[in-house]
Amino acid sequence: MNWLLKIRKRRSLERDLAEEIAFHRAMRTADSGAPPFGNETVIREKMRDEWIIAWIETTLRDIAYMLRGFRRSPGFAVTAISSLALGIAAVIAIFTAADDLLFRPLPYPDPQRLVMVWESFRTDTHNVISPGNFLDWKARNRVFQDMAVFRENKTVLFDHDRAEQLRIQSVSSNLFSMLGAQPMRGRLFTAAEDLASAHSDSVLLISYRLWQNWFAGDPDIIGRRVMINSLPRTIIGVMPPTFYFRDREVDLWDSLGLDPTVNYRAERGRYMMAIGRLRPGATIKQAQAEMTSLASALEQENPVFDKD
């Protein structure tokens, strides 16, 4: 809190200076033979210049003392500096998370109705979910207005002779409409584009940041062909500069490719995350009770896959 002490000291010096100027002015006024007091503003500025010079000299002495200490005990200095760096990094990480989750409102309508939905096992609280369970959740629950799924990964974007690894979210086609998000250019995914059969030549949404940095804000970006992990993609939309979903570093979104006709419990495991929008008036407590009941029913129906 050294900066706070300096502010307080500066205020104290200003008060002392004002009192001394007032004293000398009163003395000159009382002594009719004394010379004029002079320009008060000039006097104040000269005194402040002297404070600055004194502060610089003190700072230089502190730096010299620090360097001498570093030469005498380099191991201790490195340990102290490393500890300070780790502490600052931890504070920044905590503030960043708090800024995202607590201070800055989410950029969607009625964000208080959005909740994450997880599978829960005896050994953990939050677990990625099965596509098969999700499809049953969505069809059979009565507390959510809508539910969507997504997964996060890294991918390589190719455009002509340029390539870069970027963060990508693969999402169900209804995610953006459920959030209440719209692209600033182009359009969102359709339900037909969300099917696995459509992935041979799939479509892609990009962030505003990527549009500006990679494509120089190209006004003809919609319809442009690029490659994602050597697979062709067509850019159909650009999301607004304020949009993000869970991770501000994501620059690409493609469709997840869920097929309601596939028996995912037989073919695949658990690899997705789910988000739901509560119906108006529904509470977290009601949602928890209903989903717990639904999970018990699914365990009875799928005793091997959904055990525990």
List the helices and strands and how they pair.
Blueprint: H1 2-30, H2 40-72, H3 74-103, E1 114-117, E2 119-121, E3 124-127, H4 131-140, E4 144-159, E5 162-171, H5 175-179, E6 185-186, E7 202-206, H6 208-213, E8 225-228, E9 231-238, E10 250-255, H7 264-267, E11 273-278, H8 284-301
Parallel strand pairs: 5-10, 7-9
Antiparallel strand pairs: 1-11, 2-3, 4-5, 4-8, 4-11, 6-9, 7-10, 8-9
Helix pairs in contact: 2-3, 4-8
What does this structure look like?
With 308 residues, the protein is of the alpha+beta class. It folds into two domains: 2-72, no CATH class; 111-301, no CATH class. The protein is 44% helix and 22% strand. It has eight helices and eleven strands. It has helices spanning 2-30, 40-72, 74-103, 131-140, 175-179, 208-213, 264-267, 284-301; strands spanning 114-117, 119-121, 124-127, 144-159, 162-171, 185-186, 202-206, 225-228, 231-238, 250-255, 273-278. A six-stranded mixed barrel has the order 4-5-10-7-9-8. Strand 2 and strand 3 form a beta hairpin. Helix 2 crosses helix 3 (74-103) and helix 4 (131-140) packs across helix 8 (284-301). The radius of gyration is 32 Å and the shape is elongated. The two termini are 52 Å apart. The model is unreliable at 1-7 (pLDDT under 50).
